[in-house]
Amino acid sequence: MRYALLGDIHSSVEDLKDVLNDIQKQAPDAEMIGTGDLFECIISKKRAPFERFGRLKDVMLFSDELIDMLTFPSVRGNQEERIAQITESDEPLLLRIRTMEERIGIERTADVIHGHQWEWGGEPWLPVFPETGRNLIFYGHSHESGLTIDSQVEEVGFGVPYDVTKGRTFVNVGAVVGDRNWVLYDADAGTVVFMKVMD
């Protein structure tokens, strides 16, 4: 089975539209899974611990058009966590945000997580990857497409299949917002292809 992984949308309707159209063209059979930060929280991390709001429209960017396009399951990102933390409302969308999982499994081969849960640092800016769990992890958060196998950062190109069966592998799917990037994972072939919407 094939999977289209996309995330870091940050409420960008036009970028998401382009990526969804590209997925439909390139891999119409693929099951879509989100890597989090679907929405953009407009309240800063510094303000969040001290403020509470009664309406989602006061804390995040969204529209009916955006919600209609978000038909796929997704893990929660740091944006969703902040939105849930500072909003006190009975809106159905807030319930949806609050019930997003931290991790989604793909068959028995891989896990999807946003990645903000890890410690980040260094140059290039990378997370300290966990030593336990499945050998294939898809994540986002930094908005940079990337591939790390057995602690080695690999150079990646778009449209090229990479074998993800030969070591502990972490795949950053990149960002929809701004970059219009996504990843196609073929679980049967054990490959990932980094994808980018071209103008």
Automatic annotation (TrEMBL):
Organism taxonomic ancestry: Bacteria, Bacillati, Bacillota, Bacilli, Bacillales
CDD domains with a match to the protein in the record: MPP_superfamily
Family label: Belongs to the metallophosphoesterase superfamily. YfcE family.
Top-level taxon: Bacteria
Domain Calcineurin-like phosphoesterase: from-to ranges: 1-181
Organism listed in the record: Bhargavaea ginsengi
InterPro entries assigned to the protein according to its UniProt record, in alphabetical order: Calcineurin-like_PHP_lpxH, Metallo-depent_PP-like
Protein name (Swiss-Prot/TrEMBL): Predicted phosphodiesterase
One Pfam family named in its UniProt record: Metallophos_2
SUPFAM superfamilies: Metallo-dependent phosphatases (SSF56300)
